[in-house]
């Protein structure tokens, strides 16, 4: 794949395309942007119309449907001028040499872009060169995943308060299974890095990378990993955790909970409002509750919060109009234009509160602005967007209450990833494959298809096949940029 991408880069530079220097007027140019979105009618959202007006160019938006589609598009040489990337896809495309160095373009045409991100540029800078726009978390210091339970069903079996220890939680699942034998006690889709955050909290297992004793470690080196996995493995073996967990999709898992086939679901707050509404139609008297994070022996919770750069706006090496793409984004990110794209018109779609926050005006906001955030995906302004995002949160009461309940469950135990602002790892080219192997192995051990001893084999494999270099890279960066 790297050879193909290298050939595409040489071709684009040879033809004068790689730097977007084709001579054409703005009226003759149509920019092609790849974005991430749900099934929205984008062209009927007012945000689309604002983007066409303020950017100075006609922009065609296409939705990315997964990593495979993204890589197929890029390796086939299709000439997209901008792409939204999540963290994994950014690392993958960096390792494949598929992203353009945009340093000079930003300096010449992107001064407003540079100013919109006061702290996050290190995450996209490699050897002094910039390869993407660093879009920060829209919900900093929040919890993304947790357990949402049927409060009405728990009330009926005496659980009006909820356990905060592993032992108490397991006992509650046992009681749920006994009381509701036709329902799954706890459903979840495939667990990223095998982490079920509510239970992992008790063992201080936070995710793929975390800080332990001042050093960045991978999950395979977490001293509590085996104890945590043994608990989840036991839940799975006793059918307290959904037998379909390894293969079920998030949408199917949510559908199962919405169909009243499970008592507890492990899911993100983002999108929960749809399955809550569906369940309410089926059971009008239903109530739900976000369950606590479990505590360690000292009574403390541990969970990694959303922080740092969570999305990236990049230009593929095959772009025909890189300069124009930067110019368009630079116009869209100017604060007045950005505000109009995201929130709409003041006193029509939103109001400004005395404390500087915003409130939506309904039904105008939901009617006109339901998908407007996707048009700036990959370049959320670092300081201003989190306040704007809370307007979007307020569009649905279930979404809003679930988000705040998950955030409140952190108590004082939320921890930021030590590598949230780190640049892409360039010392190995198999980082994504190594991390996928970790998740696959942990899922296999949890499901009993692999022995618990495979955790030791996994740790050895990780260190011998590039993991050592990755951790050294992260610790060197952390020591030089964070710990000092």
Strand content: 5-15%
Instruction: Please count the helical segments.
Output: 19
Shape: globular
Instruction: Give the helix proportion (percent range).
Output: 40-55%
Mean pLDDT: 91
Report the C-alpha radius of gyration, rounded. 23 Å
Amino-to-carboxy terminus distance: 39 Å
Q: Which secondary-structure class do the elements indicate?
A: alpha/beta
Largest sheet: 5 strands, mixed
Structure description:
With 484 residues, the chain is of the alpha/beta class. Helix content is 42%, strand content 15%. The chain contains 19 helices and 17 strands. The protein has helices spanning 2-14, 46-55, 67-75, 87-95, 103-109, 111-115, 151-156, 166-179, 197-200, 225-237, 250-258, 272-282, 322-333, 335-343, 364-369, 385-393, 397-408, 431-446, 454-481, and strands spanning 30-35, 58-63, 82-85, 125-126, 129-130, 133-136, 145-150, 184-188, 209-212, 215-218, 262-268, 288-290, 303-305, 309-314, 350-352, 358-360, 414-416. Strands 2-1-3-14-6 form a five-stranded mixed β-sheet. Strand 4 and strand 5 (129-130) form a beta hairpin. Helix 2 (46-55) runs antiparallel to helix 14. The longest helix is centred in the C-terminal third of the chain and has 28 residues, at 454-481. The protein starts with a helix and ends with a helix.
């Amino acid at each position: 794949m790297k050879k193909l991408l290298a050939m595409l880069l040489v071709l684009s530079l040879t033809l004068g395309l790689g730097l977007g220097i084709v001579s054409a007027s703005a009226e003759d140019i149509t920019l092609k942007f790849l974005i991430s979105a749900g099934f929205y009618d984008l062209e009927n959202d007012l945000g689309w119309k604002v983007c066409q007006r303020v950017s100075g160019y006609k922009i065609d938006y296409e939705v990315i449907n997964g990593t495979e589609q993204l890589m197929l598009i890029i390796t086939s040489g299709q000439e997209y001028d901008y792409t939204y990337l999540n963290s994994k896809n950014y690392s993958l495309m960096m390792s494949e040499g598929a992203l353009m160095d945009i340093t000079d373009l930003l300096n010449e045409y992107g001064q407003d872009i540079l100013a919109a991100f006061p702290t996050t540029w290190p995450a996209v800078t490699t050897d002094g060169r910039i390869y993407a726009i660093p879009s920060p978390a829209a919900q900093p210091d929040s919890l993304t995943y947790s357990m949402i339970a049927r409060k009405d069903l728990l009330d009926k079996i005496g659980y009006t308060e909820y356990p905060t220890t592993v032992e108490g939680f397991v006992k509650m699942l046992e009681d749920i299974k006994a009381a509701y034998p036709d329902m799954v006690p706890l459903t979840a889709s495939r667990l990223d890095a095998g982490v079920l955050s509510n239970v992992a909290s008790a063992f201080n297992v936070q995710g793929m990378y975390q800080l332990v004793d001042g050093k960045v470690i991978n999950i395979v080196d977490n001293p509590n990993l085996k104890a945590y996995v043994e608990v989840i493995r036991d839940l799975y073996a006793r059918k307290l955790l959904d037998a379909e967990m390894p293969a079920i999709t998030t949408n199917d898992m949510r559908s199962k909970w919405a169909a009243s086939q499970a008592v507890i679901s492990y899911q993100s707050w983002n999108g929960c409002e749809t399955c809550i509404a569906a369940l309410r139609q089926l059971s009008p008297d239903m109530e739900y509750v976000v369950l606590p994070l479990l505590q360690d022996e000292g009574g403390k919770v541990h969970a990694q919060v959303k922080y740092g750069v969570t999305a990236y706006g990049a230009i593929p090496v095959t772009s025909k109009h890189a300069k124009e793409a930067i110019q368009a984004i630079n116009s869209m990110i100017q604060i007045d234009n950005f505000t109009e794209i995201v929130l709409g018109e003041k006193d029509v779609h939103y109001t400004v509160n005395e404390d500087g926050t915003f409130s939506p005006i309904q039904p105008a906001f939901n009617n006109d602005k339901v998908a407007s955030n996707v048009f700036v995906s990959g370049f959320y302004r670092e300081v201003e967007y989190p306040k704007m995002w809370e307007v979007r949160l307020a569009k649905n009461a279930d979404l809003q209450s679930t988000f705040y309940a998950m955030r409140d469950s952190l108590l004082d135990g939320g921890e930021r990833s030590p590598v949230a602002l780190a640049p892409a790892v360039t010392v190995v080219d198999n980082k994504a494959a190594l991390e996928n192997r970790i998740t696959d192995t942990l899922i296999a051990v949890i499901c009993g298809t692999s022995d618990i001893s495979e955790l030791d084999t996994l740790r050895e494999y990780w260190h011998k096949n590039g993991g050592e270099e990755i951790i050294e890279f992260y610790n060197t960066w952390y020591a030089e940029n964070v710990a000092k």
